[in-house]
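Appendix B. Chain record.
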Amino acid sequence: MAENTSTAYQNQVIYSVFVRNHTPEGTFEGVRRDLPRIKALGTDIIWLLPIHPIGEKSRKGSLGCPYAIRDYRSVNPEYGTLDDFQRLVGDIHSLGMRCIIDVVYHHTSPDSALAAEHPEWFFHKADGSFGNKVGDWSDIVDLDYAHRELWDYQIETLKYWASMVDGFRCDVASMVPSAFWREARAAVEAVRPGCLWLAETVDPDFIATLRGMGFGCLSDCQVYEAFDLCYDYDVYHLFRDYLDGKIPLERYAQALTQQEVIYPTNYVKLRFLENHDQPRAEFLLPDAGALLNWTAFSFFQKGTPLIYAGQEAGCTHLPSLFDKDVVDWSGPDRTALFQRLCALKKHPLMAGSAYQVQALPGDVLRAVHRSADRQLTGVFSVRGRSVLAAVEAPDGRYENLLDGGPVEVRDGRVSCHGAPIVFESVR
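Structure tokens predicted for this chain:
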């Protein structure tokens, strides 16, 4: 893992924005006007999905996917000008937040500037034509990092954007050589000390498939050599399998606790219930009690939680990446909930703790953050049911840090009425 990664990221919250669909006008200015509301949630970092021009060749949908980039060194004119972008970033900073942008270095659009100027920097099929390793990604062509000149170009591009922004979320980082990321991190550090590096890592089946095809694909452990945060796709499939009734809750809990011993001490995972590639939480979890508990658990988890724009408005619809599909902000307002969860995330025991998750009878997750003498216990009835749950805390009365209500521990148990419980105690 990056040796200088701070566990302070475990006290912070990331908010993800797709500029095109965030507002009806779909511009940097539209996002800028919404910044005070985003900040008021408790947001620390704003992640903007790709801001660059989109290719036209093999375009999907009417407007194309933002991950099919035509030019890494300019902004999408549909969003505004570079001055507009810089004004947005300036306001993010003035509100005390950081800004990270998407980096899509595994591929470009087929009609990208690089494809025209340096076709030799691309992966080619047996017949010599441009190609890609993942068949359904038909609107992109893969880059080939066997070329040193490509490394230099990409790193110079990162340094250019690092003069404006505070970090990068790197798309399918697992499919780009780790040596490149390590060199890029070191070079960018000279321009933006403390630059944040978030990697979209991939699930185990995807790694196995690509390696089986003879292609390189990094494990999370390898990615952590250069990055501060990795996705939790190493366990996300187990979360979905539990929801589908394929595995017991214990299997998911065990995988979460195992992260504590297979990753470095200062590892940071991006924790999410939804993102631009996955269904909305309100769609996956139609039961209100289950949704509340899973949402609270995602923030209680060790790591950095993600809010995908619209999650706080109870959206069930996942906006299209290929067409104009504005977030519906008229749904149930979850602002107060996310404000409480973001405030809880600042608790000192959330960062640098020893962390353990266990599944209890009745579909309950019990998670604990421990320091030398204190502990933070969370009880989450993930079916939204009333249960009596065992806890490892001294008998007594405590405060539920989520709603201010009382929590009583008696004979090593708490009575959970279907809502999440979080309390602090001595060890």
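Further analysis of this model is presented in Appendix C.
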